[in-house]
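Quick illustration, no need to memorize.
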Amino acid sequence: MKKLSVIAIADHREETLHQLQELGLLHVRPVEKPATATAADAAERVRTAQRALALVETAAHEHAATPPAHEDAAGDGATLVDRVLAMEAERAALKEKHTQLTQRLADLAVWGEFDPRRVGDLAAAGITVKLYVCTPQQMPEPPDGCAFEEVERTGHRVAFVAMSREPFTLPIPEIALPDAPPSALAAQAEDAAGAIARLTGGLAALNARAAAIRAHITQLENDAARARARDALAGVGTLVCLQGFCPVEAVPALERAAAAHGWGVLVEDPAPGDDVPTLIRNPRWLRPIEVVFNFIDTFPGYTEKDISGVFYLFMSIFYAMLIGDAGYGMLYLAILLAIHVKLGRRAPTQVFTLLYVFNVTCIIWGALTGSYFGIKLPATSFLNNLIVLNPADTPMMMKLCFVIAAVHMTIAHGWNAVQMMNSWRGAAEASWILVLWGAYFLANTLLLGKPFPPVMYWVSGGGIVLALVFSGTLVRPLELLQFPFKVINFFGDTVSYLRLFAVGMASAAIAQAFNALAAGVDLPLALRIPLVLVLLVGGHALNMVLGPLSVLVHGLRLNVLEFSSHLGQEWTGVKYDPLRRR
């Protein structure tokens, strides 16, 4: 990256921002000052338009068939957004009214149909009538001259009418009379529901103009980008300056634009303290993993390593082990294919490619372990020929997790050692690999009861001494105090990979438990079939929901925390996002 300062005439600032946006090369350097009202308003307009688009898409989804567009769907994107928001505001008010009426009707149901005006007529004649609901324990004694008429009594509620020719009060809350008979309230609720349905249909009809709303959103995003860039402008007299970054190979194009538009351009190397954006150019086969980085909004710093390849490989392995079932992988794959076909060209290619790879890996792992919906395979099944790992063999599965941990973290320290091979720090990183494998054998000894190889005393001990010497820790007292904890951390990180086995085993246990519950149902056939279906579908659906969540929690952790901490990766990067027309 190169740091650029673009200098232009202050009176031409808007024209300059438009031209830079058309060029689409300059990542504007963020400013420390808060956004101006203009930039904040521009961002709010984007969010408002996005909300309008979501409303019409949701309304269209709620309808089996989208109503045809009508005259209300005319107008540009801005007009459509205003109309959608107005309709939604009206619909929200009607929903609130409908909810209140429904609740009021539920409260009044115990009293049946009555006309509240008759209560007013009785009051005019000197007879006070009040409605009450309380628990049997709260039921008061009637005051002198007051009569109670119970309308309903249950184990937890008493509804009664209190009547008297004299004013009276009771120590329990009074039920407020409605403004109209319950039948009239029910009619109002029905009218509100009809109006809600009509408005929802109107919103669904506006989905036919979703493309216009999307185009409007794009325009608003362009306006918001220029507003942010405008905030970053520094003015000196009759000139303005905009600083930013662009790739080295893009500098000539920007210089040509500067010559054409009369800008001044200063090209520099980024200073050590600059917040330089990160531009990662992965080969096509690696691009799907960028979906994960974008999802968690985490990017390597400008001077940090691009670990896309290692991340992709191990994330696929972690996904397979955490889901751990070929049957689930096939179901996920079938669902993905159905959604992909439905979306057609609108389907995000990288997202689907990533999920296809993950689930194919899951199917392969499930086949290698013989895991299919938690069902024990028959002895004669040909699928038994594919099994090479027994998930019930706990020591073997734990050892596999330790091997994955050691290999994963060895890649991290080996990468550092190669990168720093011309310095003592490279030797220190190579020494840590010896410590790491010592931690691997220690985990096998403490958790699996395997004998600790005598040679590893020398290997791991020598690694500790070499790391202590080559890292320069001996001359830094604070680091020297932390050094023992760093060594212990190698063992802790190795053991942390057991989560791959533990979570996968828990998923298998849940599947087997629901299978056993379904198999144990002993009811007449008419009752057994629906109950078995509920148990099987509900249990496996729960497992299929929890599986991806475990990948997000544990799979990401092993890559972003354990592996990255050994690599020295802090994920402090900002994605290269130039001022451009979208």
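Strands lie at 2-9, 27-28, 128-134, 146-153, 158-164, 174-175, 234-236, 239-246, 264-268.
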